[in-house]
Amino acid sequence: MKPDVHPSYNEIQVTCSCGNTFTTQSTMKKALHIEVCAACHPFYTGKQKIVDTAGRVEKFNQKYGAMRKSA
């Protein structure tokens, strides 16, 4: 690698809005504040809401299902 071409790779402190903190490496020189991390994101915590699409599909079939059957 050529010298003085690549940016410095620093260890920084990351703070989430939930209060979780961890360290990572980045080209940023100051601490990073994020809104969602793996400790509070619904996908990783298992508290993800499942969207009930069955009601929407049933409503669609009631509204437009008769058109398909008569054709």
Automatic annotation (TrEMBL):
Any Gene Ontology biological process: translation
Entry-linked SUPFAM superfamilies: L28p-like
A single cellular component GO annotation: ribonucleoprotein complex
UniProt keywords, alphabetically: Metal-binding, Ribonucleoprotein, Ribosomal protein, RNA-binding, rRNA-binding, Zinc
Domain of life: Bacteria
Quaternary data: Part of the 50S ribosomal subunit.
HAMAP family: Ribosomal_bL31_1
Role according to the record: Binds the 23S rRNA.
Protein name as it appears in the record: Large ribosomal subunit protein bL31
Taxonomic classification: Bacteria, Pseudomonadati, Pseudomonadota, Betaproteobacteria, Rhodocyclales
